[in-house]
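cron nightly-structures :: item 1 of 1
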Amino acid sequence: MAGGCGGGDGGEADREKDSDIALLNAALSRELATLDAYTRGWAELGPLGRRLRAHQGEYANGLTKAIRGLGGETEVEPEELDLTEVEGREGFLRLGYELESASLEAALDAVPLLNTAAPRALAASLAAGHAQHLVLLRQALGAPPVAAAPEAFDGGVVSPPAPLGG
């Protein structure tokens, strides 16, 4: 991964770029996994799934551009998904909730670790998008409007609403 990062003297700037590329590749792997989940749940999730899937594609494209902009390579695989217990609409909503929560938490954690401005701004934007997705998923899981709104400083660790009908 570092080989395409610069032709510099191996100085601090190259190390910072390499660090940013590694963080962005980890985020890309997560985004690709979430994209895969929404693709597999497309039929179950209907218009919401299509919207979330489109956003995930945009996130993956943005991360790819950021990595390439730093001179890096994007040869990552999506994180592995365990779909053995995912059934029906509610199962895909809960899987999406879990993945979006993890992505929100990771994006917030990455912001202070990124060394360059553009990747920091991208991570902050990803965090905002994932937070919005969590609100939509809470609503789709049956939370009333007030309960669907996140707590102040929600960092992606808020549990989803109780199962539908239970």
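cron nightly-structures :: done
Residues 1-7 have pLDDT under 50 and may be disordered.
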